Amino acid sequence: MFLHKNPQLNKNGELHHLLSIEGLPADILRQILDTAESFVGVTQREVKKVPLLRGQAIFNLFFEPSTRTRTTFEIAAKRLSADVINLAINVSSQSKGESVLDTVANLAAMQADMFIVRHAQSGAPYLIARHVSPDIHVINAGDGRHAHPTQGLLDMFTVRRYKKDFTQLRVAIVGDVLHSRVARSQIHALTTLGVPELRVIGPKTLLPSHVEDLGVRVYHDMSKGLKDVDVIMMLRLQNERMQGAFLPSPQEFFKSYGLTAEKLALAKPDAIVLHPGPMNRGVEIDSSVADGKQSVILPQVTFGIAIRMAVMSILAGN
Amino acid sequence: MTHTDLPDAEALLKTLAAQMRPHMTAQTALIGIVTGGAWLADRLHKELGLALPVGTLDISFYRDDFHSKGLKRKVAPSTIPFEVDGRELILVDDVLFTGRTIRAAMNELFDYGRPASIRLAALVDRGGRELPIAAQFVGATLTVPADASIDLEQAGGDKLRLVMQPIK
Q: Would the CB atoms of B111 and A38 count as touching at under 8 Å?
């Protein structure tokens, strides 16, 4: 009999790499969320550090530029007392023609314990995870359009903090789902955790074909899609998509799909608004909403550190 | 020793509280170690009528066996609802054995501040210390077979009872 083997899990079914939320059982997602809850307490103390990963070497391998995600991984690793080495590979080895696997083999020879990988190519972290020695852990920090699991998890943590029970929620994901690795991770996480009604809202050109197969309802109209939702997850409209065939103009997009106070009023009065950042104010979200009382965008950033501490310490212990 | 030979946890709790009572001041605070120690600290807090609230510690992030055992499935948040600086703290645990849990708890406490003192209260001291740690307040000293663990469990309401089982 052929058994599908999840490359993220070890032989005991525990998390060894975090590459994607797809295929992870709900109890592993809950374990990460629960552990992060304890790390939120740590980050509020006078000494915001625990000795858990003392002496471990964690390499931030960013083949694609990122400031926020790299910084939150760095802070998380430092709060676990690990040593962090940041490498922006696009400006060093890759320009000299070294392959990804050569780069990784060299770093492994420097006694790396964990790689945090961001890459423009979908699947790059899988390639690395397949080739590293079994005692090294790999975390996907965003690969192409495929997945951004720690962002998905911090969004789940934020939703749970404000809404408690996933099984009672109506959630809408709004914007450029087609190009969004964040949206894919959110959809897998929300369905795994039992959200009964998940909607995606966006123009036809920015929604993947057959997105319904992921268990979501499709809306092209904000006034219908936002009606009575508990949670609104806005996506970033990437600058490079603003011209050309996908969109007429940023102004047009804002008119139809930008989250304004009027559109937000269609959701439940206590609905929360998330955004993975960095925001394009006046394109996908209005400033009055981004800075308004229903916005949980800054708490997301804070919780992102606790989530990354949880993922790193669970992996390191497995 | 069988289950029926184990001392009554409720009686030990009274003994422990009686030992502690003369030493309580306005600066004294109890900190229970999750999970048995936290239950015990709650009961002692009521028994002793202390002004400062009870703290709880889950020492998972400070364990010395993380590299061999990893993180346990459910880590409870540690909560210290008062300033630690200058306080007379009493760590409370159900069973004192190797002393490694207490070492981890003390390390964690110092990340909250600098207490005036730390003392240790344990319902049961079963010997077997691997570190230079001793309890100032002890409900009972027991000899327990090396392959057995002795634990506190909840026996309905806030009542507590001791149980012995083979080490897994």
A: no
Class of domain A149-296: alpha beta
What pLDDT digit, counting tens, does each position of B16-55 carry?
999 999 999 999 999 999 999 999 999 999 999 999 999 9
Q: Given an 8 Å threshold on Cβ–Cβ distance, is B77 in contact with A40?
A: yes
- For A78, the token pair is 């430092």
> Which ipTM value was assigned to this complex?
0.86
CATH architecture of B3-166: 3-Layer(aba) Sandwich (3.40)
> Chain B contact for A52, CB < 8 A?
yes
For A279-288, write each residue's pLDDT tens digit. 999 999 999 9
Q: Where in chain A is the domain with CATH 3.40.50.1370?
A: 26-147+302-317, 149-296
Q: Which of A37, A42, A318 sits opposite B61 (nearest CB)?
A: A42
Domain A26-147+302-317 matching CATH 2.40.440.10: the answer reads: no
- Measured between CB atoms, which of B58, B73, B112 is closest to A45? B112
Apex CA B58: angle with CA A13 and CA B143, to 5°?
95
State the DSSP H helix or E strand holding residue B18, giving kind and residue range, or none if neither: helix B9-20
Return d(Cα A147, Cα A43) in angstroms, integer.
27
Which residue is closest to B66 within chain A, CA to CA?
A317
Q: Domain ranges in chain B?
A: 3-166
Take residue B82 and report the two structure tokens written for it.
């008062």
Distance CA A109, CA A310 (A): 26
Distance (Å, whole) CA A197 – CA A170: 5
The secondary element (H helix, E strand) that includes residue A126 is helix A124-131
Q: Is the pLDDT of residue A23 over 70?
A: yes
